[in-house]
């Protein structure tokens, strides 16, 4: 497999965690979202992923984009360890939390949106993340065990950790979100979350390396 990734992309990080958890080795092709006006806009990359976004994964003779679609494919083809619970209610909760983050928070503070916000970009990102986290904190108080849904790592957790990383980057006050903070801390102790961290990627700038 070949993963087209950017070290700080939260969508790419979700996929890196899934690959690590499932023990799938892969090669990384870095796509720098800032350099050369954004390498994702090159004709070569656009031919592979018309959305001009990372991640993209070449695997088993196909090219997939969209992080959750990629993770679902990995779940279907490499079922262990499981990232979706077997219980239908818990399964729905995992998908709900994942969707909450990947649809309701992350796109609103994504690079393409922030570029349009100009000087207000930090304030915009903080507001989008805070309002999303207020709802997420309430949801997690009903679903969480050690992790987002019970005590097993799930697709929801793969979405949570990169989003908290974004929140910290934009200096969001995390004090009102003790459940999110607790779960994030527990997940960052796991090896798959460590090796996939933005500070440990081949394209991580020297000053940001762990």
TrEMBL record:
PROSITE patterns: GST_CTER, GST_NTER. Its cofactor is glutathione. Its main location: cytoplasm. It is found in: Cytoplasm. One of its GO terms (cellular component) is mitochondrion. Its EC number is 2.5.1.18, 5.2.1.2. CDD domains: GST_C_Zeta (cd03191), GST_N_Zeta (cd03042). Residues 1-82 form the GST N-terminal domain. InterPro entries: Glutathione-S-Trfase_C-like, Glutathione-S-Trfase_C_sf, Glutathione_S-Trfase, Glutathione_S-Trfase_N, GST_C, GST_Zeta, GST_Zeta_C, GST_Zeta_N. Residues 87-206 form the GST C-terminal domain. This is Maleylacetoacetate isomerase. It comes from Smutsornis africanus (Double-banded courser). The gene is Gstz1.
């Amino acid at each position: 497999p070949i993963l087209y990734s950017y070290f700080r992309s939260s969508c790419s990080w979700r996929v890196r965690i899934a690959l690590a958890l499932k023990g799938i080795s892969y090669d990384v092709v870095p796509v720098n979202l800032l350099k050369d006006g954004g390498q994702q806009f090159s004709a070569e990359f656009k031919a592979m992923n018309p959305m001009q976004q990372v991640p993209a994964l070449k695997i088993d003779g196909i090219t997939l984009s969209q992080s959750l679609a990629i993770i679902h494919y990995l779940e279907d083809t490499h079922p262990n360890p499981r990232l979706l619970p077997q219980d239908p209610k818990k399964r729905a909760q995992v998908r709900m939390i994942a969707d909450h983050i990947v649809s309701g928070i992350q796109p609103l503070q994504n690079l393409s949106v922030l570029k349009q916000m100009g000087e207000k970009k930090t304030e915009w990102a903080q507001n989008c993340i805070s309002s999303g986290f207020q709802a997420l904190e309430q949801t997690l108080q009903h679903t969480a065990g050690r992790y987002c849904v019970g005590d097993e790592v799930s697709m929801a957790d793969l979405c949570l950790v990169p989003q908290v990383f974004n929140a910290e980057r934009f200096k969001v006050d995390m004090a009102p979100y003790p459940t999110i903070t607790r779960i994030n801390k527990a997940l960052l102790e796991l090896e798959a979350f460590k090796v996939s961290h933005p500070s440990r990627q081949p394209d991580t700038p020297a000053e940001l390396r762990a």
